[in-house]
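Budget justification note: compute hours in this period were largely spent on complex prediction jobs such as the one shown. Inputs:
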Amino acid sequence: MLIRIVASTALCLVSCVTAFSARAADETPPLPHQEWSFDGVFGTYDRASAQRGFQVYKEVCSACHPVKHLYFRNLSDLGYSDDEVKAIAASYQVTNEQPNDQGEMYQRPGRPSDRIPGPFPNDQAARVANNGALPPDLSMIVKARDGGPDYVYGLLTGYKEPPPGFNMLQGMQYDVYFPGHQIAMPPPLSDGAVTFADGTPATVPQMAHDVVTFLTWAAEPNLEPRHRTGFKVTLFLIVVAGLFYAAKRKIWAAAH
Amino acid sequence: MADLAHSNAGGAHPGETRRDFLILTATAIGGVGVAASIWPFIDSLNPSRDTLALSTTEVDLAPVQPGQRLTVAWRGKPVFIDHRTPEEIKAAQDVDVSSLRDPQSDAARVKKPDWLVIVGVCTHLGCIPLGQKTGDDRGPYGGWFCPCHGSVYDTSGRIRQGPAPQNLIVPPYDFTGDTTIKIG
Amino acid sequence: MADTRPGAGSRIIRWIDYRLPFVAMLQHELYEYPTPRNLSYWWNFGSLSGIMLVVMIVTGIFLAMQYTPHADLAFDSVERIMRDVDYGWLLRYAHMNGASMFFALVYIHLFRGLYYGSYKEPRELLWILGVIILILMIATAFMGYVLPWGQMSYWAATVITNLFSAIPLIGQRIVTFLWGGFTVGNPTLNRFYALHYLLPFVILAVVLLHLIALHRFGSNNPLGIDMKGPQDTLPFHPYFTIKDLFGLAVFLLVYSFFVFYAPNFLASSDNYISANPMQTPNHIVPEWYLLPYYAILRSVPNKLLGVILAFGSIFLLFVVPWLDTSPVRSARFRPIYKWVFWLLVIDVSALGWVGANPPEGLVVTVGQIATLYYFVHFLILFPLLGKLERPRPLPFSIATAVLQGGGGAQLGRAGAPIARP
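Corresponding output:
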């Protein structure tokens, strides 16, 4: 009986795993797993890395990619003080929600309660500026792609010369991990593209690592409360299960 | 089929008290778990973070000239900001407080006498009084006039005539600089 | 039964109970209720399913307080719940993973029924009510998945509602009617929201009928033989209340592992992309608990036949009590069926694998074989095995089987199979 259960569970697991990984694999090489501070049940966000990542986003990615689900006030979660958040917000111009007394929409400095504005007013404008390609919103990108953080890291560091005989379309770049290998985005990162405030050398792997940490936080800001609550709940349930099991044995002792 | 099977729960066995204690502890701790799990549901109904982010409004007063009035939104309500002229300030201060329906001195309603900050919602039934725009009827005291039922407010926003029971509410605010305030 | 009669409080209860015998009913149905003493842990899954229904309703109601059912706003409202609502992430992940848990529990509960013959006389209606619950759950889950208005929400809705176009002559008109427009859109979302809120309460009502039907004859048991007297039973409280509570604690550990540590393991990453009617995802895949039906649908080259077989695979379950001709309930005493049962488990798992993968190569072949086997299993094996099999002798009673240890057949005793009407 037990063997049968184990066998069919194993079969189910194998088919589940193959099913879930089949979608990610295609003909691309397996995605290397990076070490992330947020990995595992005790994972947290490395704030220093996330702040550097925000700098990379701001100075490199935000030229084309919006992060529409982020508000400036969310940045205080990364360790910026209230004044720093206000200053960052004020450095952006945002469109006021209401028109002015003349009925015209106008721009004003941002406030912490505003969303971080994207580079383009709408998708069509974004396409026009990018040869018809639409740079996706990045606030959810890590959850919206199979492979998550490893995939985004792989994509950013995966630009290579196309192998001989590979037919590259006009204007496309070869990337090892992008499905189909042809990506419209030119390699965004190059060594020294950003000067980090904390002095960390800005190599491509470093910038990729930091911006992925930032983007993972952007997609999943409640990871740490979730892990903390999960720990307490798990511990509690183990105790309760133990107690109930002992009680069950005691009550059933009479019947057996 | 409906026979009651003999259960041991009513018997007097020596191990009974230990078993009862175990069951009691298990049930009590389980109950704590159930109670604790109710909190997230209730807390989810509290104002969410995006609502709380709009709970304060900062206003730059520099562009407002003496005699001008500004309306800003705060927590979904209009707030009247009046850069009062010396005449308006004097008129507000020269009132016999005890004669007021809602006795309050002008000093108790302002942080700097030049600036009056009040919530622009009539304390009668919630209409927005007139007086903020040039050409509006300000009523006999030069303050504000509510067209809905005729409440009249003075240059300190206090109720002088009409059905409103209370003065216009002064919201919590602080000067964060010489010409900037943070409301809420 | 410990009898607590403190003063005025219970006088009020007695006053009410005399007029509306609520307490007396609970006393009989939950406390004294005679339950076979040999139930295994496979009997925990019914109560666990009931608890999950309540969890889904409660988390659903609190999510409904924050969600906006409009095509332009739904996706962002869900993100607002995840980011800005206190514990919103917990409500959302609990509801999302709760659906998976609910189906896992119900599938195990269903297979328990298949193994131990719980659907056999006199429990046919109990089984039928269960199949109705399963169908309602599938409808609810399908509509619920559309609500976040992600890429998978939108395209799964498109694909599945398009199935109805297979109906001859009026198919496309039905689809337009279901959509409320020319594609899946805001009208579709709104009506799915209303129905998604409604159906769980219909499920609740059917669950109550399911429990009433259960209590008519009581639970089946691993031996598949009837309870003959009080020596075969134990009162539900405290024996099975504590066993159910222990099972609940273990289940909650599994559930909370998903919610807190792997909340998106069972989800499709495409659903974190806002719905785009102009772009279809590379692989449209339903949630895991719908994969076998999806696999059957795709395995049949003919569109209408595929739809009929996919829906048929569920509706077939209604007639299982009449397809199975065996005079014996429990597979423990059915030497051939006990192996054939596991073939079904493997078959359904294989169908799940097929449904998850793009229909190419080996996937297609396995899909066709597995679909064929599924119908062979119920339509051919069930009737045949009952006739051809020689069941092992049944024990005299539950009590004798349990007290002699192991619950297996008593060799040499004249155990009669259950009498057929």
